[in-house]
Fold this protein.
Amino acid sequence: MQSASDRHEYPAHWEADVVLRDGGTARIRPITVDDAERLVSFYEQVSDESKYYRFFAPYPRLSAKDVHRFTHHDFVDRVGLAATIGGEFIATVRYDRIGADGMPASAPADEAEVAFLVQDAHQGRGVASALLEHIGAVARERGIRRFAAEVLPANTKMIKVFTDAGYTQKRSFEDGVVRLEFGLEPTDRSLAVQYAREQRAEARSVQRLLVPGSVAVIGAGRTPGGVGRGILGNIREGGFRGPLYAVNQAFPEDLKDLGGVPAHRSVRDIDGHVDVAVVAVPAEQVPEVVTECGEHGVQGLVVVSAGYAESGPEGRERQRELVRHARAYGMRIIGPNAFGVINTSADVRLNASLAPEMPRPGRIGLFAQSGAIGIALLSRLHRRGGGVTGVTGVSTFVSCGNRADVSGNDVLQYWYDDPDTDVALMYLESIGNPRKFTRLARRTAAAKPLVVVQGARHGGAAPQGHAVRATRLPHATVSALLRQAGVIRVDTITELVDAGLLLARQPLPAGPRVAILGNSESLGLLTYDACLSEGLRPLPPLDLTTGASARDFRAALSRALADDSCDSVVVTAIPALGEPSVGEAVLAEALRSAAEEVPGKPVLVVHVELGGLAEALSAAASTAPQATPALVVEEAGPDARPGAGAVPPPERVPAAPTPAAPGGTTARGLTGPGPVGAGAPGAEEASGEDPARASRLIPAYPAAERAVRALAEAVKYAQWRREVAEPGRVPEYDDIDERGAAALIDGLLARGQGLTLGSEETCDLLGKYGIQVRRALPAPTPDAAADAARAVGYPVALKATAPHLRHRADLGGVRLDLADEEQLRRGYTELVELFGTSAELRPVVQAMAPRGVDTVVRAVIDPAAGAVLSFALAGAASQLLGDMAHRLIPVTDREAASLVRSIRTAPLLFGWRGSTPVDTPALEELLLRVSRLVDDHPEVVAVTLEPVVVAPHGLTVLGATVRLAPPPARDDLGPRTLPAY
């Protein structure tokens, strides 16, 4: 029970769960008067050396006065935080506000002394670094801007905690003590340090779940058929390398073995250490299981049990309690309602899932929030024919169910530097933290391809069981932002696998130029059309005719790969009717051998009802017993056609090996459903192939559209990789008055929590950032309109600004180029006759702008995704087509240029059909200024400039609205925390 503080209520929002350096978790919370016994117990477990470092003298025990001082805080000038595991303290930190004389003080003093104490058993786990982040955030909240710490020179570990934090520091040495002073405002370096620590910790927490040394399945029944017993069998049959235990409280006391697996009634009864527990018991029994696992030192849980948030409010509360309970013991959870996890590494061989077969080992990482989709993905990658060829396998697979704890973000952190994963494929039904996901995706995509398909795009609500932050952004906008972060966005799981297989084993294309060759003119033309539809630049197809031999294919492919005018090659192939299938292997080997000669360009194959070719292409170098090549060569002449039962001489096109026997292996993995057979040749290489051999694998597709779509995604991703290598810069503008804008915003917000600015205030604020808005004068009567026109000067525009007519020139609510008062009054009369009284129309008069292209610039701060800058051409057509581009703020100069060019109607800006090109550099500068405004002042939660008329020379902003409000909380700038439950 936690009591209220002396001066402030208990700050519950300071409580947080954190992931430590070794992947375990701890809870950080304020210390209260109820923690006296915990504090004494904690101190008794600290070594004399650590006590000496803390108090600069021998200090064997805490006095009653010490205990009172360290547990009574006002949560303003005196604050103490504790890191706890299992409810017990493992570390503490406190600050005391001090004045200029170093004595205790209150606000407005903005400096505080800080001190740590970490139990020796938990030193080196990153506990002090996490506590420093959190006590720093608390101090900033309470108006403290600097910390001071005095450390003995021998206490190198604590000095390193401070110096490595990334804050701006000042160090001095006096009276045998090192004094460190540092500001608490986040810096680029401190954020980089924080993100690096976050990545290491979260990656390690997932690694503990995917690379366990030992596993217990809790809920394995005595008779076959149950979920627990099924997972136990899958782990055993998959060849798990570590100790495996079966646990069920219903086992008879004399049962010691279950199908060859040691059996126990409780995890507590297991003599050895258990790294991961798979929980498959009814939901009401899970709390007891969690307690047993926590007390036994289990590191993580895979909870396949159902009955949680997917079942309604009661289950949602049960799920929250499950997470709190597990984290209290430092454990992380995959699930509940999870399908399970798989790791195909030869050192692990873990199939702790409901999948009855271990997938082929390979270089693709899979993440799915849905168990059903997870099954579909594993099945598609496992198949050899009848679709995308299984040219590669899986490194790791995670299906997280309700995603109560471990999420896609955590798995991305693991894959980022996982040497066994080259491509990441993710099926997401929701994105719980879009801002963090975008940040992690950008970093991951810079190192390896990340392909994402998002389900429930049009459902309007998050899937049951998923905690998702509210966002006002439509799916198309979120999709565009993900693409900006380098994510390869696809719409179906078929496209997900298609793209993944290409990216896993083919180089990235250098550009959009595609060579097409094959033995079918029609299929070549279909491929050509598909390339044009996807924005690629295909060369005229080369028809080898149906009589082409394997040697012809090889020669044509070699020429195409050596041709500098193409960046990739699509090979189309149709079968020869009535011919035996041995020639399909010959063609596959011919294509592979040609691709090896020029390895820098991707090669794809489009085959029609040619299952043998897909199989042969995936069998790069079978390690199963092979037929004698010499016998095969003797059966064929040198010019055999594909499917003609003949192969070229071995010195030109080596004979392909026969397919591996069921259960055997190829260089990329299993050809059959069974595990690697003991003693099979090459079985030891099942989880990791020779990279040189793997690079020869060529993906085959049953339709031209699928192959070309995958290639188009690879082209766009490669272009993103080139652009991100030179990200551009955020330019500085001398005429920006940041302080003046801040003062104006503060004054305006003093009126209320949120407001839309008036015309004059909008113009003043935008003017601080060099954005000039052409003022519009109200014209409630014809005489007022005439006066306004004389003030701004003819020619003028007369506009209706009523909500239903605003920015809708197509409805006739605008009169342009009014040269004199007569035309103005006539136009005023026409508007009133068409649309109603002037009170309904809200007419304004504005000086005419130079002719150009009407555009729209918008910026909005979304609570989930962050600040977003958008651009489009003005008008109903662009709105109807949804032709608007988006970028995350802050925008660099390269991103501003890309934003202008990424809409489909962009050619209208660049002289389409003989029109005069407009001043796009001026437009890009406007975008950068709006980006700076919103980035510098997060209180500016929405900006709309419409229309912005871009002329051949310069531009004119004719309309603008600005909304101010207190900015939403930026959790990405705060200390590291796990999602709260």
Observations:
- The radius of gyration is 33 Å.
- Residues 188-210 form the longest helix (23 residues).
